[in-house]
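Researcher: Can you fold this with NAI in place?
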Amino acid sequence: MARVLVSDKLSTTAVQIFKDRGVEVDYLPDLGKDKDKLLEVIGQYDGLAIRSATKVTEKVIEAAPKLKVVGRAGIGVDNVDIPAASRKGIIVMNTPFGNSITTAEHAIALMFAVARQIPAADASTQAGKWEKNRFMGVEITGKTLGIIGCGNIGAIVASRGVGLKMRVVAFDPFLSPERAATLGIEKVELEELFRRADFITLHTPLTDRTRNIIDAAAIAMMKDGVRIINCARGGLVAEKDLADAIRSGKVAGAGVDVFETEPATDSPLFGLDNVVCTPHLGASTSEAQENVALQVAEQMADYLVQGAVSNALNMPSISAEEAPILTPYVKLAEILGSFAGQLTEEPIKEVEILFDGSPAGMNTRALVAAALAGLLKPQMQSVNMVSAPLMAKERGIAVSEVRRDKTGVFDGYVQLTVKTEKQSRSVAGTCFSDGKPRFIQIKGINMEADVGSHMLYTANKDIPGVIGELGMTFGRKGINIANFHLGRDHEGGNAIALLYLDGPLSEEFLDEVRALKAIGQAKLLTFDV
Ligand SMILES: NC(=O)C1=CN([C@@H]2O[C@H](COP(=O)(O)OP(=O)(O)OC[C@H]3O[C@@H](n4cnc5c(N)ncnc54)[C@H](O)[C@@H]3O)[C@@H](O)[C@H]2O)C=CC1
Ligand SMILES: O=C(O)CCC(=O)C(=O)O
């Protein structure tokens, strides 16, 4: 039975879902904050469900040999070392929509709080001061709202802004003019947004391009009296520069939910007039927490129990419905990759995968990942579908895929071509209705052969006596040949043979086979069937 650790505070709905789906679960909501304890226990688990307090570092991943999936109940995965997880074949998934509305609402709440100085007015009133003249606010209607990052949350903020009768402008390199028109907003360049906005709100991930997207130079371009809201990630705004601009009066106020260092126990922004801070509360509503807990538990259980993948950041999605249809082709792709990987002894430069007919309409990203996993496995035992694309990229292997309509007698087939400095080798296969993979072409030579656990592949010249010689050599040693498949390109040309064996062969015997005059190449192949 798969075992999952929930190491951050999550709605107990998640715990119930794991139990209902037959997954053993330990709910230890404070464990994520204790790095040493996490390292001590993580080795026992197949899955780890987290929010933002647990940091899934390379060290944690190294200490987790059984771990198969990390599920983030939320959006941002900057607390997970995704490349390290991918290298170990661990799927990292998030719940991209469950808390978007809630976070957008928090941005709007902060915008109002800053526009009307509500927290300071509340503190003053409750202190019995009645400072009616101190808290002069600004109206929101008719003001320009500048949105940086118009994805899920940015778009919801945009619609709320439009509803509040604001003029909304957005900077997002991936926002299409059509989408902007549908949202009723204007797509602009960043500098124009800085020049025009009365309120600026950030909704991008933290990347090398967005880090400090608001710093002293950016603030200098803004209107005097601009107000800035950050409910996305600390690090998007240079806190010290913002603090200086608030002190100078250039920026009239800021609403800050996220900080460069969290938990933020100190910040240049603390204690300044009209800075409203919250402790990363963007996603903290009961509705959003229920959504993300339910979603992450369902997704993780789907993967651990059925092999279905959704919302993974390092692996193509495979739905529960798709999994049974795709599985035979995933196996086929892995076997073709494994065939080529076992025969290739020099560095691979290029891999081309052709999908003809039925597999062309499938989730080919998953099939490519499976083919690469099979290809790299002879060199790297721990590689799997999650890590293989990254491993191939890190090794400089160019991967391409071609999809085309059915061209031959088969409903569909997959052909893998592997190129090295010296040669190009191709192998093709199909799945029949029994779901079993078959080789249908090797090095351009047609044949039809089942896949066995232990096989001997030989390449030879098409001359009389080869089969006899091979049979005699096996017979002399008392080794049974379970099955024998042959193919050639033309009479007297290149020929190949695939022999099915009942078990492995010794290197000594293989040398004897290789020494046969008629045999050019002999390689023992093993397949996980
Ligand atoms: N405060 C909180 O509790 C929460 C914070 N978040 C954070 O909010 C942020 C946005 O989340 P979503 O809208 O779901 O993400 P998303 O991926 O749907 O949208 C992000 C948008 O940013 C855009 N973008 C990327 N680089 C950009 C750049 N250099 N300049 C301008 N735009 C750029 C993308 O094109 C995309 O449209 C994330 O950082 C997420 O972690 C999300 C949920 C809760
Ligand atoms: O889980 C939380 O409270 C933080 C949510 C968040 O930042 C996210 O989903 O990106």
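Model: Folded with NAI in place. The first strand starts at residue 3 and ends at 6.
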